[in-house]
Amino acid sequence: MAALTGRDLLTLADLTADELQELLQLAAQLKSGELNIRCNKVLGLLFYKASTRTRVSFSVAMYQLGGQVIDLNPNVTQVSRGEPVEDTARVLDRYLDILAIRTFEQQQLETFAHYAQIPVINALTDLGHPCQILADLLTIQECFGRLSDLTLTYLGDGNNVAHSLLLGCAMVGMNVRIATPSEYKPDSTIVEKSRAIAANKIEITITEDPVTAAKDADILYTDVWASMGQESEASARIPLFQPYQINEELLSIAKKQAIVLHCLPAHRGEEITHEVMEGSQSRIWDQAENRMHAQKALLASLLGAD
């Protein structure tokens, strides 16, 4: 995908719909072994937030491409002592070939991208989680053989995952319903951007009713009710979010062949029950694996193969 070489991925909206579909096709080819791309470059991981799947999947993907990974733990770099973002960005630009950043504010990510000439990837911010949705779409495509003419229902907090799902589903022609308590709806700017991308070709619904949202859905999706940095709010959120739990009762009103997704880590017994997570309709572990394949395709495309 030469068109992506040298570019940043700060949000899914940085891609065209065709580029997104081509990335998913490349990820599928890499996963199946049909293609074997070599990319002897250096990836830096600058993570201000804890991570399991994102850290390990990016690292393994880069190693499998033949490259190297440097874990730039903020606690042991000058970042922890207040070095300005623009200074760190310009220095890392001289050492690395590509940089994945996991942080809180989207603006910090955009500042890095402005001052660094190498590709910068959003590995999660409070506004979006584009790499997660690449894996989600790959998983859905594997399960249904298509992405269009399906309905995905997301239940819970209108957070970064919900934002990126709105954009991703709009780009691939998938109906998307976001069901949240009234005070936890997704950002209205993201909703409007998604509707503009969809151009009235699909259904984009924001609702407070989890039952209506789940009815006849092809995919039920959830995330933790309190994201990183919101832990102090967890106990207050639980009663509000309880009706949005994915359990066997809610799953029973989705389509018979519906699948269940969760971006992990999960709080079993809160946003999803143990029975559903371990049930026959769960595709959560395939979804987690696909982080590696989707990100391998993304790294190869942004860097260009050797």
UniProtKB/TrEMBL annotation:
Q: What is this protein called?
A: Ornithine carbamoyltransferase
According to the UniProt entry, what is the EC number of this protein? 2.1.3.3
Q: What is its main location?
A: cytoplasm
Q: Which InterPro entries match?
A: Asp/Orn_carbamoyltranf_P-bd, Asp/Orn_carbamoylTrfase, Asp/Orn_carbamoylTrfase_sf, Asp_carbamoyltransf_Asp/Orn-bd, Orn/put_carbamltrans, OTCase_ArgI
NCBIfam families for this protein: orni_carb_tr, PRK00779.1
Q: Which ranges does the record mark as transmembrane?
A: none
**UniProt subcellular location:** Cytoplasm
Q: What's a single GO MF annotation on this record?
A: amino acid binding
**Keywords, comma-separated and alphabetical:** Amino-acid biosynthesis, Arginine biosynthesis, Cytoplasm, Transferase
The top EC class, named as a word, is transferase
Where the record annotates domain Aspartate/ornithine carbamoyltransferase carbamoyl-P binding, the positions are 7-142
Which organism is this protein's natural source?
Answer: Aliterella atlantica CENA595
